[in-house]
Amino acid sequence: MSFAACCAGHGRAHPGALRVLAAMLCVPLLASDVAAQTAAPAQPAPSVLSPGERTLEAVVTAALSQHPLVEAARARVDAASGERLSAGTFPNPVGTFWVENAGFPGQTLPVGLSRETSTYVTLPVEPFFQRSPRVRAADEGVKAAEVAIATARRAVALAAARAFFRVALAQASVEAARGNQTALESLASFSQSRVREGAMPEVDLMRVQVELDRAAAGVALADAELARGRAELRSFLAGGGGQSGALDALRVTVPAGPAPRSALVPLSEFLAQATSSRPELLFARA
Predict the structure, then answer these.
(1) Quick count: other Cβ atoms within 10 Å of Cβ 83?
(2) Distance CA 37, CA 269 (A)
(3) Enclosing H/E stretch for 84
(4) Nearest 5 degrees, angle CA 52-CA 58-CA 61?
(5) 64: exposed, middle or buried (C-beta count within 10 Å: 0-12, 13-18, 19+)?
(6) Per-residue b/e over 147-161, b at no fewer than 16 CB within 10 Å?
(7) Integer Cα distance of 37 and 139 in angstroms
(8) pLDDT digits (tens, 9 = 90+) for 83-107
């Protein structure tokens, strides 16, 4: 069911849905801002929100704090740091104690044989030549792992923002569909009264009832889409308070103000900044 079909009964788009659609156009910008811990859009105060409501900032913060992709990236940094420590460590010397012509325990040596004993220590010289390139490679591996965290955080923030606005749009669609159904129920009741009084043909009442049935189906489809969106959003809130309460109680609150916009920089400056700070390029260089 399209969003336009849900709003057909009103003759105009639902105001909340229009606000959601406008905000969805800025999903990458909002996610990037929250992931970088920059200024976030105006959000309702926590005391105003109901227990099941979530703001965009709260959703992205919860996702970045416990999402498996981010945790895996952090674990790779720890592993790379361990490899760096191993690469810079010198090997231990190897001590050897050697005995020749020794008798078996409890037996004496044959006449004319004497026991020979030797002791020596071995220190590999290979690490002295290979330590420097190994350390350098391990340092670059640590840099690559650290950059991978930024890439994972960005991907998780974008996915969480999309899930947030999917739920927001589904909520607006459900409200519009239910409003359409309520209006048609009133129209059906009024038409039924006119049919009883003989002021309206019964065929017109049948048309209204058909539209009412369509509106009921539209509400059911909108509810199903909202449930799917909530289930997707719930995965980003696991471990951060998202598992408490019923799934039906999960709601999102769209910022009331306009979406933040960044001033455009000159193209040359933008390209220079992208080539020097994009995580993909930093990872490839490392």
Answers:
(1) 16
(2) 23
(3) helix 68-87
(4) 140
(5) buried
(6) bbbbbbbbbbbbbbb
(7) 27
(8) 888 888 877 888 888 877 776 676 7
